Amino acid sequence: MTGSDGHFTARDRLASTVADLGLSLTPRQLDAFEMYARLLREGKREANLTALTDPIDVADKHFLDSLTVLGALPDGPLRVIDIGAGAGFPGLPLKIVRPDLDVTLLEATGKKVAWLQRTIEALRLSGVRALAARAEELAHDAAHRAEYDMAVARAVAPLAVLCELCLPFVRPGGRLIAQKTAAGATDEVPAAARAMELLGGRLVEVRPVKHQALPNRVLVVVEQTALALRDYPRRSGLPAKRPL
Ligand code: SAM
Less Cβ around it within 10 Å: N or C end of the chain? Predict the structure, then answer.
């Protein structure tokens, strides 16, 4: 099936690629992704949401890529925080496919958060919210500190920085799932050893994504073994400026 302009739609591309992740989406979920693609297109200029315009790229590099995280998520209800969610990746696609997840999208840029809030409403999703804050600050708020089963992040910072920004949100026994390229993980995992040690994290696995449309993608899975020390994350900007 093609869109009204004769081109493939994001919906149809996703419908044809998602089976190779071992997933099957309902017509309603596919409709939600098509609406998401349309809102991304319409909101692009207003909030600098994404550089991608081609529906196949949006389906592969945003939707499908986000859904690879499902392979590392346990079954059952979970509280998930997406750090630096941007236009909602990976958290919003995860929510569309796993309505049992409670998802918090954390994003520092107010314009993106306003767009995310409108998009959540348009998609009629409940159990998901977008918050405008920096991770360095929100992680010290008792309502969020060590309150999540899972933190997820894509394209936000090197792993050492992500450990400091994300692990304080995760309860002991919970996990950080960082989406990386294979080459990125090869460099970043050893460089994050000290950050993991200071934050209480333990590397569980670097899990290759098995999908031909997404070569060289991996999920870096870090378990939070203890409560993070109160000193972390350090003040805004410092984790990226002076990684642990
Ligand atoms: N995760 C999305 C994706 O993969 O498309 C967005 C990636 S974008 C390159 C990084 C986003 O992280 C930006 O929207 C930025 O505002 C946000 N960000 C960076 N550092 C942050 C922080 N310390 N706290 C909250 N958001 C942050």
Answer: N
